[in-house]
Amino acid sequence: MENYISGTDGDMYVVQAPWGDLLQVCRKSDVTEELLVQTEKVLLYKADMAAKKLVEVNGLHDHVLFLGRSQSQCLSAEAYPQLKKNCVYFTDDEIYVSHYKNNRRDIGILNLGNDSTEEIVSQLWCNWPNPIWITPNLTSMNANS
């Protein structure tokens, strides 16, 4: 099941937070003249089920968010100290990638505190296929050893 919707206002994702809240994530991107997509901002909203409305969330504090077509998830930065807290790790979701596979990819880390982005991997190594987040099942890995 896909966890995002692509629309004119940006891509929307639904993510279960570790503390129990359901988050709606809006990823705002810009398309350049060369048809390159660049993530510019990520907005977070908590679903308030009782009031039946979305409430804007001001950052992830001690958590990190992974966004992508394959899977989106929120994790504790304390449990994964190698990750940068209050940051969003993203991969491009665009279907157009199959038509423009040699173009620069929209893969990086966005800091929710100041909206700055940084590259995760060299563009040379990620032109095809679409990037995905892989979540290893540590229980299965330990059971098989």
From TrEMBL:
It comes from the Eukaryota. Residues 11-109 form the KIB1-4 beta-propeller domain. It holds the Pfam family Beta-prop_KIB1-4. This is KIB1-4 beta-propeller domain-containing protein. It comes from Triticum turgidum subsp. durum (Durum wheat).
